[in-house]
Input
Amino acid sequence: MIGKIYKSTGSWYLVRDDSGGFWNARLRGSYKIDGLTSSNPLAVGDMVDMEIEDNIQQTAIITEIHDRKNYIIRQSPGHKSQHNIIAANIDQSLLIATLKEPKTSQGFIDRFLVTSEAYHIPSTIVLNKSDLYREKEREKFEYWNDMYARVGYKIMLISVIKREGLDELLKILEGKTSLLSGHSGVGKSSLINAILPLQQLKTRDVSGWSGKGMHTTTFAEIHELPGGGQIIDTPGIREFGLVDIPKRELAHYFPEMRERLNECQFNNCIHLNEPGCAIKKAVVEGEVFEDRYISYCKILDSSDERY
Ligand code: GDP
Ligand code: ZN
Output
């Protein structure tokens, strides 16, 4: 039987089979994934083979893990050398942010975009709480809208409270597995509650999952959308870990820089002080937004890797 991991708590997994049935499953004791030091080798979104253990209790044993299309990791808190896989097989990633209460910085957005580029996951920026925006925020949105559109990213406005922009958002989510991230306070939970039918969460409880005494809110979880498609919620995780990007590669993850890289005089240019740098020239000529270049410099500066 093939299934998809909908929730992972470390040793137990909630798995959905092809016909929509849910199983509480464990990895077979002897299962080892080579090369992974993770204590938690499976993540939400993983596809697995499983064998039924108990049809009444709906428990199963996971016997095989399918190859992943992609996955995102974060550094284990407290163990810098260890990584946890947060989610696998993601079609796109949405950053929920806002221009007010609490204001999201462009630096944060650009770090998110760079990470998504590095993972090869398409991303969209969703600005919530548009009902609170005054002239200043509207101008900022127009500026970002123009800038990100030119770089190749979609940025959209929603108001969960006024239920504005949600239809457009649901269109983007339709038929895809989408990861939702965002700082706390931006309205991510409100958004999830607004787009998911309550019914679904209740049904989930009946399966006995909550009876296992697990805290249901602190683990990544997949939710089925009524119109098709799924969202992955990662409670408590504001941003996923930046994979170790060598300084010389960082510009590859800024699409507007990537297309100009081979015009630099030196092929190991990191676009700071080198002569004949096409990126700096493009900034001066207004071809690359200065604010994006500033984000680039900040990320470069925060990387501990030497060059
Ligand atoms: P989370 O931490 O990202 O999950 O954020 P919550 O969903 O808990 O929301 C944080 C606060 O923002 C709550 O007080 C919500 O009522 C409020 N909020 C959420 N969406 C909106 C919105 O569209 N407009 C306004 N004005 N407030 C919102
Ligand atoms: Zn350069």
About this structure: The chain has three domains: 2-65, 71-233, 247-302.
